[in-house]
Write a structure and sequence with these properties.
The complex is a heterodimer. Chain A is built from eleven helices and two strands. Chain A has helices at 3-24, 29-39, 44-69, 74-95, 100-119, 133-137, 158-175, 180-190, 195-220, 225-245, 252-274, and strands spanning 142-146, 149-153. In chain A, strands 1-2 form a two-stranded antiparallel sheet. Chain A starts with a helix and ends with a helix. The N and C termini of chain B lie far apart (39 Å). Chain B has helices at residues 9-41, 61-69, 73-101, 105-123. Chain B is elongated, with a radius of gyration of 19 Å. By secondary structure, chain B is an all-alpha fold. Chain B has one domain (8-44, 55-123). Classes of the chains: A mainly alpha, B mainly alpha. At the A-B interface, helix 1, helix 3, helix 4, helix 9 and helix 10 of A face helix 1, helix 3 and helix 4 of B.
């Protein structure tokens, strides 16, 4: 296959990943790595670099859509970004010392967990309990719009959330993924934020987290322009179209299909990691 | 809690614009570089199954800029990818400005710290 054909096929595949990722709200980034490694036979280190770029592209591109809804908590995002960026830097540095087979296995396991988490969306836990002292000191309590007008919410358990965010950052830096599932989980389950606030604030943080490790990967020579070009352009076009087609009712079955695609890709990655074909 | 009166909304809209502009600019530069790259190297055979790492000039900000200046296709794409990586960094930078306008010193400090971490990743790796 020539570079021209390779770029065209990869661009189309990335477009499909971005489209499905945006329509299902699961993000297309973590499909990019198995796609490159399993289908295109690309070395996992190049794949991680390209995936990080796609994560930044989708998160920044989607931000415009989220902004209109007015849900994200910028201050909370900024505080937690301390944890995710430190995590991302340590994850990216750690990645250099882990054999590629083991990276593939860890990636497969994380992918399976993400698929499980997104298949079992937890119930809303935001409650009207008393304010948390640390949250008050950090000016984190805020409101979110509801049909009955703005509603106040309190942020809770900040140290636990901070610790979980560090872990999300490590995973993001180590594997080149957005870790959106872990971020949302730590915000709406541990810190008791309303679900919409968790997802939009998570999206706000994903780009910054990925940018931290992308710098490290650039210096290490993992970011290849020949791969980055079709992946970034494809994912961007796909996710922008997907956000426009977004319709909650019709995406249920798409979600189910997409989750199973992820499970299949995760198994494939685990298999190639265990058998040493990476 | 006057600080929460603005509920991040106006701020958010401005930051959203920064992001959109950054992504758009990155996509344009990447597309332009992509055309140059495909015209010159489109018929070669890609080799990504073996990891070699990028050459030194595509690993640093200054190297990428000088490659792009000489209109190398890969250099131009890499410049666009750098702009993409820089987009969230620009958002953090604009947040510093926003918190400065509100004289919220605690958040100026927090945001500057995040910015320093990002700069560390980009400069040293």
């Amino acid at each position: 296959m020539t570079i021209l054909a390779f770029s065209a096929v990869l661009g189309l595949a990335s477009f499909a990943a971005g489209l499905l990722g945006a329509m299902t709200g699961l993000g297309g980034g973590f499909v990019i790595i198995p796609l490159l490694v399993v289908a295109f036979g690309v070395d996992i280190r190049y794949a991680i670099g390209a995936s990080l770029l796609s994560v930044i592209a989708t998160s920044s591109g989607a931000a415009a859509a989220y902004v209109r809804e007015g849900f994200s908590n910028i201050k909370l995002g900024m505080v937690l970004e301390i944890a995710t960026t430190i995590g991302a830097l340590s994850g990216a540095m750690l990645a250099a010392h882990i054999p590629t087979q083991e990276l593939a296995i860890v990636f497969g396991l994380v992918l399976l967990c993400s698929a499980y988490l997104s298949g079992h969306r937890a119930r809303e836990t935001a409650g009207g309990a008393a304010p948390d002292r640390l949250a008050v000191a950090l000016q984190l309590d805020s409101t979110y719009p509801t049909p009955e007008g703005p509603r106040l919410y309190h942020v809770r358990h900040i140290p636990i959330g901070f610790g979980l965010m560090y872990m999300a950052g490590v995973l993001s830096g180590l594997l080149g993924i957005g870790s959106g599932a872990v971020k949302v989980l730590s915000m709406d389950q541990a810190m008791r934020l309303p679900f919409k606030v968790s997802t939009t604030t998570s999206n706000f943080m994903i780009g910054v987290t990925a940018a931290a490790s992308a710098g490290v990967y650039l210096h290490r020579g993992y970011i290849d322009p020949g791969l980055g070009m079709p992946v970034v352009l494809g994912v961007l076009a796909g996710s922008m179209l997907g956000a426009r087609l977004l319709n909650d009712a019709s995406t249920r079955w798409l979600r189910v299909i997409f989750v199973w695609v992820i499970v299949a890709l995760a198994c494939e990655m685990l298999y190639s990691g265990v058998t040493g074909q990476v | 809690m006057v600080a929460n009166a603005w509920t991040d909304k106006e701020f958010d809209v401005r930051l959203g614009r920064v992001l959109r502009a950054g992504v758009l600019l990155a996509a344009i530069v990447v597309s332009f570089g992509g055309v140059v790259y495909l015209v010159r190297h489109g018929h070669a055979v890609p080799e990504y199954h073996v990891f070699r790492g990028e050459p030194g000039d595509l690993r640093s900000v200054s190297g990428v800029v000088s490659d792009a200046w000489s209109l190398s296709g890969r250099g131009l794409i890499q410049l666009g990818l750098l702009l993409l990586i820089g987009t969230p960094v620009a958002r953090v930078l604009f947040s510093v400005v926003g918190f400065l306008e509100q004289r919220n010193w605690m958040y100026v400090a927090i945001t500057l710290f995040v910015l320093a971490l990002l700069a560390y990743g980009l400069m040293n790796g």
